């Protein structure tokens, strides 16, 4: 009997090679026909022995497509390395009661040559059967074995099509996945480490390809593939899984050993390689992940290695290990991106409004519309988390349209209830890809009978204005119509007043990271004071965000900051609460600190 692990390995290989594919069977039919003709038997079969049955993937002279494994003669044949020949099945105690002998087929003769792959695994047999007893000569037996080898070659050849990367000649990702699947069944108890390498950044490859043509780039990748193989011992198969990426599996390596190996690989890889006549240094980043050889873990290995590799690329590290936390974070991002459209259709989004105060008379003068998402399974999600995710999707403009519509409708109500009270909305760079953004907004303003001067648009500071050529003309059109433009989060990144001259701005909102805790940080005090002074000299009004304490407010007043917004003054709240708050202010004593 085959031991269980051999059997599992064989079954995995049958799956990996896709041996049951009818197209493979058809391509083998000529060999089966040749076998029947050469040996003069009425029946010739290619039989594959899987977990519970044997299947005749190519057959001559037999209507039967499969039998259960228990009654399979081929199942015995695959246990030996040579031919199993039984001249008369009735005389063999193992088979005399077999239904194929006693039943209507009345089979008497059997000769089966095992189909043994290069890795030494027998998948099934090429077998001959006859209803008369007979015997193959030694010469005929050799011929049958030769035909069996041709069958295996044909199988491996067919299955290797599409399994090699033509540039390096190495097995590709499909083969990696297939081999992992075999490994996972063979070695269920062992621990392995999957390694995914990136040896050249795609942008540089593209640049070099444009300048020099693709051949030198392909040559670089070939040389990189050779270097990886040189460093790895012979028993480690290297796979070329994506244009600039290679993968392999290590067995029984400690973390220290893996990291030492990655260090050696990096050292070897980063020596310059010639691309055309230019010496170039391949980069080296590795994502690694331990795994048990079980089908589920092996099936997920490439994805996990990609999570680790992307971490290494971002951190510009030689090697990063897979982190379940990072994976969960990425999956959550993906989930938010895929659930947002449904969220929008099902009214899971809402707006809250945070009042903003004029520091000259301490009156609330406007409110900023802030988006909220209550996910049915994940609960409330902060816009700080979902906006950056959705900004990378085509849904962001749709979501902004929703914000525009709802905020404008509320602004129209306030125009009636709170004359002069303005509304701020946040727009993201992606919104400006829509060249109809302003036209659409103007249409909504008309619909709601709103004066453009009641609306302020907040955009974040940044270089994005240069990469979105449609943004400036639209901002200018908005400003020309009377909409105020504010730069949000000023001072949080690489702040620069230089590029602001091109934008028709009226307000600068000083980022809360500088304002909160102002009283305690000398650097923040210097920065905020300087920003306010310079902004005023350039003719902008200033707004401080994130005012949480009285001390901050006093300093801001001292420096002449025009407006303030923050938890100390008022938290984001419902539209109705804003209405009550503003009415109370207009009626009574100004600026009560927020109860929270
Ligand atoms: P932002 O536009 O700078 O909005 C101010 C954020 O600071 C809000 O967070 C607000 O709740 C919070 N905040 C206000 N006062 C204080 C304070 O005193 N202390 C602290 N720690 N925080 C304060 P929120 O609502 O979580 O929004 C975060 C960011 O998400 C916003 O920053 C904005 O960039 C973005 N966002 C929110 N709504 C929208 C929207 O409708 N469209 C777009 N494109 N982005 C939005
Ligand atoms: Mg804002
Ligand atoms: Mg801000």
Automatic annotation (TrEMBL):
It comes from Stenotrophomonas aracearum. Residues 190-324 form the GGDEF domain. CDD domains: EAL. Residues 333-586 form the EAL domain. This is Sensor domain-containing phosphodiesterase. It holds the Pfam family EAL. InterPro entries: Cyclic-di-GMP_PDE-like, EAL_dom, EAL_sf, GAF, GAF-like_dom_sf, GGDEF_dom, Nucleotide_cyclase, Rev_trsase/Diguanyl_cyclase. It comes from the Bacteria.
């Amino acid at each position: 009997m085959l031991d269980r692990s051999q059997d599992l390995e064989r079954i995995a290989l049958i799956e990996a090679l896709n041996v049951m594919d009818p197209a493979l069977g058809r391509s083998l039919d000529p060999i089966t026909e040749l076998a029947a003709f050469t040996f003069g038997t009425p029946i010739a079969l290619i039989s594959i022995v899987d977990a519970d049955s044997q299947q005749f993937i190519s057959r001559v002279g037999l209507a039967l497509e499969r039998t259960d494994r228990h009654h399979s003669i081929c199942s015995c044949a695959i246990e030996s390395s040579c031919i199993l020949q039984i001249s008369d099945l009735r005389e063999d105690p193992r088979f005399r009661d077999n239904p194929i002998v006693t039943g209507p087929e009345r089979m008497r003769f059997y000769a089966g040559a095992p189909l043994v792959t290069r890795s030494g695994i027998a998948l099934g047999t090429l077998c001959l059967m006859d209803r008369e007893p007979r015997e193959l000569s030694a010469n005929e037996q050799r011929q049958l074995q030769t035909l069996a080898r041709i069958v295996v070659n044909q199988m491996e050849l067919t299955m290797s099509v599409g399994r090699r990367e033509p540039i390096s000649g190495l097995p590709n990702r499909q083969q990696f996945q297939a081999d992992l699947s075999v490994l996972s069944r063979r070695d269920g108890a062992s621990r392995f480490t999957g390694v995914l390498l990136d040896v050249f950044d795609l942008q540089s490859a593209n640049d070099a390809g444009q300048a020099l043509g693709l051949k030198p780039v392909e040559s670089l990748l070939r040389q990189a593939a050779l270097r990886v193989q040189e460093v790895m011992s012979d028993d480690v198969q290297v796979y070329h899984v994506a244009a600039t990426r290679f993968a392999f599996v290590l067995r029984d390596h400690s973390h220290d050993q893996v990291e030492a190996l990655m260090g050696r690989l990096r050292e070897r890889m980063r020596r310059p390689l010639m691309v055309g006549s230019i010496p170039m240094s391949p980069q080296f980043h590795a994502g690694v992940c331990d795994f048990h050889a079980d089908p589920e873990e092996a099936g997920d290995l490439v994805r996990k290695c990609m999570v680790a590799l992307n971490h290494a690329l971002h951190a510009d590290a030689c090697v990063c290990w897979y982190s379940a936390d990072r994976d969960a974070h990425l999956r959550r991002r993906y989930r938010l991106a895929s659930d947002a459209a449904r969220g929008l259709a099902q009214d899971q989004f809402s707006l809250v409004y945070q009042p903003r105060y004029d520091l000259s008379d301490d009156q609330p003068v406007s409110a900023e519309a802030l988006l909220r998402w209550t996910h049915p399974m994940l609960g409330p999600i902060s816009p700080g988390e979902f906006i950056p995710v959705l900004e990378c999707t085509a849904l962001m403009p749709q979501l902004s349209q929703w914000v525009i519509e709802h905020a404008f409708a509320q602004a129209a109500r306030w125009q009636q209830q709170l004359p002069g009270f303005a509304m701020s909305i946040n727009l993201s760079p992606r919104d400006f890809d829509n060249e109809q953004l302003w036209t659409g907004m103007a249409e909504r303003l008309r619909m709601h009978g709103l004066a453009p001067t009641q609306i302020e648009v907040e955009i974040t500071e940044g270089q994005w204005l240069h990469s979105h050529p449609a943004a400036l003309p639209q901002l200018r059109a908005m400003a020309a119509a009377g909409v105020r433009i504010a730069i949000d989060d000023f001072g949080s990144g690489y702040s620069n007043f230089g590029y602001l001259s091109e934008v028709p701005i009226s307000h600068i909102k000083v980022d809360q990271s500088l304002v909160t805790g102002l009283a305690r940080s000398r650097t923040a005090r210097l920065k905020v004071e300087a920003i306010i002074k310079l902004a005023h000299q350039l003719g902008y009004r200033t707004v401080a965000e994130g005012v949480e304490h009285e001390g901050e407010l006093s300093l801001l007043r001292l420096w002449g900051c025009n407006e303030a917004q923050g938890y100390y003054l008022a938290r984001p709240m419902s539209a109705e609460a804003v209405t009550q708050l503003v009415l109370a202010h207009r009626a009574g004593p100004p600026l009560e600190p927020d109860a929270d």
